Amino acid sequence: MLATVTGWGINAALRALAESSGADIVTVYYTPFSFIIAVAFGSLLAGFLTGFYPARRAIKMNALDLIRYQ
After folding, report:
1. d(C-alpha 26, C-alpha 19), whole Å
2. Cα 57 from Cα 44, distance rounded (Å)
3. Number of helices and strands in the chain (H, E)
4. Which position among 8, 15, 68, 70 has the lowest Cβ density within 10 Å, counted as fewest Cβ atoms?
């Protein structure tokens, strides 16, 4: 999130600098929407996969055995 906001700020500053010098519009920072969706989906998938195995393993264990173990 911080990187996105920083990128937008740098892009706005460079665009203002280019426009003040009479140059065409400059876009330095560009993130396609499809990339944002892919990253969000990948993060959700990684979180699900890394949480699924420990939760599945915990379901199979007896709670009393775990309390006695410690």
Report:
1. 8
2. 20
3. 3, 0
4. 70
